[in-house]
Amino acid sequence: MAKERKNKMNVLTGSAGEYFVAAELSRRGVVAALTMAGTDAFDILAVNKAGKSCAIQVKTTQYEKASWLLSSKDETPKADFYVFVRLNGESLPDYYIMQAEEVAVTIRESHAKWLATPKKDGTPHTPISMREIQIKYHDENAYNRWELITGEEDDGKE
Question: Where does the pLDDT of residue 4 fall: very low under 50, low under 70, confident under 90, or very high at 90 and above?
Answer without folding.
Answer: low
